[in-house]
């Protein structure tokens, strides 16, 4: 009688352990997918922001270069 109860207990314990291992495996797989999607989304957002900053800097410096060229042409005209 005691041996049968012990075997039943061990069987239930083994099943619970197996189910928990499967659940953990599924959780890890799901978490990995979500983490990968999150990483891709963040990388795209960072890349878009970096490109936006680069475009803004380019426009600012082109404006400055244009202003300096105009100033230079004006001063050259005064000298000659």
TrEMBL record:
Superkingdom in the source lineage: Eukaryota
Entry GO terms, CC: centriole
Keyword entries, A-Z: Cell cycle, Coiled coil, Cytoplasm, Cytoskeleton, Repeat
Subcellular localization(s) per the UniProt record: Cytoplasm, Cytoskeleton, Microtubule organizing center, Centrosome, Centriole
Keyword Zinc among record annotations: no
PANTHER family, alphabetized: CENTROSOMAL PROTEIN POC5
Function, as annotated: Essential for the assembly of the distal half of centrioles, required for centriole elongation. Acts as a negative regulator of centriole elongation.
Protein family per UniProt: Belongs to the POC5 family.
Descriptive protein name: Centrosomal protein POC5
Gene source species: Dreissena polymorpha (Zebra mussel)
């Amino acid at each position: 009688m005691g041996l049968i109860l012990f075997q039943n207990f061990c069987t239930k314990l083994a099943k619970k352990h197996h189910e928990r291992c499967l659940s953990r495996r599924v959780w890890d797989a799901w978490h990995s997918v979500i983490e990968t999607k999150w990483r891709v989304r963040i990388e795209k957002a960072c890349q878009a922001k970096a490109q936006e900053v680069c475009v803004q800097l380019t426009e600012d410096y082109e404006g400055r270069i244009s202003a300096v060229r105009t100033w230079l042409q004006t001063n050259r005209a005064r000298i000659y």
